[in-house]
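[Q] Does anyone have a clean structure-token version of this?
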Amino acid sequence: MASVRTATTPRLIADIGGTNARFALLRGEERDAEVVLKCADYPDIVSAIEHYLKQVGASEPQARPREGAFAIAGPVTGDVIRMTNHVWQFSASQTRQRLDFDRLIFMNDFTALAMAVRHLPRSDLEPVGGGRALPRTPIALLGAGTGLGVSGLIPVGEHWIPLQGEGGHVTLSVMNEREIEVLKQLHQRFSHVSAERVLSGSGLVNLYDALCALEGVVPEPLTPPDVTRRAMEASCRICMEAVSMFCALLGTLAGNLVLTLGAFGGLYIGGGIVPKLGRLFTGSHFRDRFEDKGRYAEYLAAVPTYIIHTPLPALIGLAHAFSEPGPRWEAE
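[A] Here you go.
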């Protein structure tokens, strides 16, 4: 199909998570019409997109985008895409056809974040601990929200190549007796206790429930925001321990990721949970556990870690997806 896109036709970019779908229109290098919708309010991805386009006045033919790039919270390995923590599943090619787009790119949400990281304002990056980034060396990323995302950014010649994987589903690593007891509790519920089973919104509740069981306390039906709020208020001892353990376990995972990638360019933390924890995170054992790698403690002490505070950062990466290389699935 011949493209009818003009210089004034916007592109649609969208970060589709397990809970929220974040949309914007891209006009040249500028974003506007940013809107966040609840995924649960729509039966499928196309319904959410059409609602957004109508809401921002971009549904009519003369204003409608002809190209799009979508970041998806789940593996993107072929035409059929199934979200890990939401019920939506769809065909990339059928989605393009239903939207009447000329071009539609799909990629993992943390691949999009990896594409963004070099373009984030320095003022939006909060350092945690010491270290100094080395130029032209790999960068590591992870972040907890509805799920747990993991990626990296690798320098190759004049380009930076983002990684696409499912590192949030690696087996959880524990370091002390208390964590081993929690892991035993979780094994009663899950045949495989992945990192995401504790390092996510639902993971915070899993930690709380497991700690209640160890304490012989009947757990309350808390939501992830309940756990973090009570921890920040210091109104619930078990919630405080759950958040403290979350931070420590995230530090262990982050150290593993940096060792795997040789990420002397730094570790960047995104997602919806950590940026909201404030001093609970910066004063936690995250950095201690990040560096707690025996003979490689000095290696990790040299690597800086940052919390990303940029609003909707994956959209910045998606804006570069139309022209920069990286793993993706282009709908036929």
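[Q] Thanks! Anything notable?
[A] The chain has twelve helices and 14 strands.
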